[in-house]
Specification:
The protein is an alpha/beta fold. It has 13 helices and eleven strands. Bound molecules: nicotinamide-adenine-dinucleotide and glycine (GLY).
């Protein structure tokens, strides 16, 4: 019998180091992996209603098979709205009512929304308890479950209330991607492409050849792609956990993307990955305009994203206003005293942080994208 492809990546952060396990069939091994990591400590499952309908019973069976009691569960509605203060307050009160103590471990089963919310609950309850990430979207498997950024949204913007809090373990079962809606899978693929664009042109070339296999569910291609992204992120996080320097490169496409996502209304015309896809094209376009990047690289990136079903320009059905987008960017938590900070590129695989980009240049890039 062929053995299933799987991989294990270490995030090296001294006494807060942890493993990311990637592969198919991992939910069946979850009980064993949890037991190896936290023994018999009490658990609480946090998930959303969609994901729980697909995977809660699998998780429970796996825990039971390892001799672990089935944990109580907090289920939030699926969607970005669950990263709100009210949703956080309700979940926190429910968990406290269950009689949590400092040994309790939260299991975060779901996409980036569940991971960010459950991680922030773990960061704040009793001034910090442990948690394990079990990401079920491609976006969460390659990005949000790794690196310890946790948080919720404010009326003033996305992810403005949060904390760095590393998980004890990340278990990314690629089989869960089978039930993921195609739009969500492609949105996660935008984050996969991001890793090639920011620092690894060979990985981007590999995606040119195998990206369709990743999207179509080929297990080996998925494990290779997800593990490559996690390896890149693990190395960046180990070097710069709190985003004092190179971790900012992970925000390639995000300054434009967040602004577009926010102006189109969260949970509306654009999801996070789609915003990032358009934002990466805009970052390449701005880099070309500023003389940093060959136009051919912009064309390659655009063609790659388009051919993998991702948007490369802002949606026509939203009336974006350039000044409103710039105000959003100035309010982004990466902006410093209102100055515009962008991740720009010298070419595919060569990203750098540019502080103080002139608003007039950004306006031209926006006008160009909005007219595309
Ligand atoms: P999500 O968590 O909202 O999941 C998308 C949808 O897919 C939801 O409806 C969910 O219920 C459903 N779903 C999840 N897994 C499924 C599965 N296996 N089968 C069927 N349905 C499934 O969205 P996301 O794209 O995973 O995450 C987006 C969030 O991640 C945003 O809030 C963003 O800010 C955050 N994020 C955080 C970081 C970080 O470093 N912490 C990085 C990137 C993004
Ligand atoms: N997703 C960006 C980061 O983790 O830093």
């Amino acid at each position: 019998m062929n053995s299933l492809p799987s991989d294990r990546i270490r995030v090296g952060l001294d006494n807060r180091s942890y493993d990311i396990v990637v592969g198919p069939g991992l939910l069946a091994r979850l009980g064993t992996l949890v037991k190896e990591t936290v023994g018999d400590r009490p658990l609480i499952l946090v998930s959303d209603t969609n994901v729980a309908a697909f995977y809660r019973s699998k998780v429970e069976s796996s825990l039971s098979a390892a001799g672990i009691a089935i944990p109580p569960a907090i289920l939030v509605p699926a969607g970005e709205e669950s990263k709100s203060l009210s949703s956080y307050a309700q979940a926190a009160e429910s968990i406290l009512a269950m009689g949590v103590d400092r040994k309790t471990v939260i299991l975060a089963l779901g996409g980036g929304v569940v991971g960010d919310l459950a991680g922030f609950l773990a960061a704040t309850l009793l001034r910090g308890i442990d948690f394990i990430q079990i990401p079920t979207t491609l976006l969460a498997q390659v990005d949000s479950s790794v690196g310890g950024k946790t948080g919720i949204d404010s009326a003033h913007g996305k992810n403005l209330i949060g904390s760095f809090h590393q998980p004890l373990l990340v278990v990314a079962d690629t089989d869960t991607l089978v039930t993921l809606p195609s739009r969500e899978l492609k949105a996660g693929y935008a984050e996969v492409v991001k890793y090639g664009l920011l620092g690894d042109s060979d990985f981007f070339a590999w995606l040119d050849e195998h990206g369709s296999a990743v999207i179509e569910g080929d297990p080996e291609a998925q494990v290779y792609a997800i593990a490559s992204c996690c390896r890149a992120k693990a190395s960046i996080v180990a070097a710069d956990e709190r985003e004092g320097g190179q971790r900012a490169l992970l925000n390639l496409g995000h300054t434009f993307g967040h602004a577009l996502e926010a102006e189109s209304g969260f949970g509306g015309a654009l999801n996070h990955g789609e915003g990032v896809s358009i934002g990466m094209v805009m970052a390449f376009d701005l880099s070309v305009r500023l003389g940093h990047c060959p136009v051919n690289d912009l064309m390659r990136v655009r063609a790659h994203l388009l051919s993998h079903g991702l948007p490369v320009s802002p949606p026509r059905n939203v009336a974006f206003e350039p000044h409103a987008l710039i105000r959003r960017m100035q309010g982004d938590k990466k902006a410093e005293r209102g100055r515009l900070t962008f991740v720009l590129v010298n070419g595919i695989g060569q990203a750098f942080v540019a502080k103080d980009v002139a608003a007039s240049e950004v306006e031209i890039a926006l006008a160009h994208a909005l007219a595309a």
